[in-house]
Amino acid sequence: MQNLSPLEHLKIARRLHFQGNTREAINEYELVLELDPENEDAMSGLRALGVEPPDPVLARGATEHAGGLKTSFFVNQAKESHTPAWRRGPVKIIVCLLGAGMAFALYQFAILLLNFDNIKAMENVEVHFQKPTQKDDNATVSVVIGNYNPAPIKNMVISYNIADDKGNTLKDGSLTITTQVPAGDKRTFTEVSLGSVKGRASKLQPKLESLKYGPKPKKLKQQWIDKFIDASSQPDKDSFGDFCDLVDNTEDFAPAYVGLGRAYAARSDWKRAIENYKKAIEIDSDNANAHYYMAIAMFYQGDRTGAKKEMDTAASLAPDDPEITWNLKYLFNLKDTKQSKSGESPK
Prior knowledge:
This protein folds into four domains: 6-82, no CATH class; 87-114; 119-213, Immunoglobulin-like, CATH 2.60.40; 222-342, Tetratricopeptide repeat domain (Serine Threonine Protein Phosphatase 5, Tetratricopeptide repeat, Alpha Horseshoe). Helices cover 52% and strands 18% of the residues. The chain has 15 helices and six strands. Strands 1-2-5 form a three-stranded antiparallel β-sheet, with no helix packed on it. Helix 11 runs antiparallel to helix 12 (288-300). The model is unreliable at 61-87 and 335-345 (pLDDT under 50).
């Protein structure tokens, strides 16, 4: 290989420097200084590239000690000096923090998407605390949950605040109702414990925090979902027209037939109520709510045997449903004379 003079190496270094080939230019400036340790042009070139050249005396000594062998000092220093800004200490920390923040934001967005249906369903759920009692510092309440969605809900987490008559908080807490509440219906959970409460409670405020919604009805257009929500939020006697529209314009949507059956039942038209409950069961034989209301209608028609069979089916499908459990336990143990005197009726 032909040996070049310091001047020739210097020319190559300047050309590479001008072209932006930093590492190659540093190598050439290094060769110049190995051949001529006091070359000011080479040292100026290195400084322009952000590399501090070594003391000429020390550089000469290091070259002589190394037997004239080329070292990697300049290349290593160039790598260090030309590390991209995002890889340097403080900047690297900031970039990492920003990256972590973006990752967390993306994670939260993904969670939001996964829980979108649950969050949206919460808009159509009412929660009320009724009949609060406080005995021996233990508070209990009846929790009424109205689900106006076209699909059932369960695992409802409800936070609450208990305060005295001056608004001072006596207790903050939460409770979970795991039992399913059917589509377009209400359930009352009695004697739910709120735990120990010190002081005289005067105000009780619940707030629904989360729930599990579904499975969603298939092939149901948004306009009929909205219609179902409106119909379900009305008293049964006022929902007849909306539920008629729903059964006429939707296919295989069992909750609509249950709703129409209840509207007929509110008019004491038990025959047509039963027809609609049967249709709901044909569509979805596992619909515990349809079996439950079928039992109620058959009971009022005097078919206690058929009513008991339907209530047993409802209980097997929804063993934790509070209203099905109550009716199964008490309704069929009532004697006709006792019922007529007390005015007891199915829930």
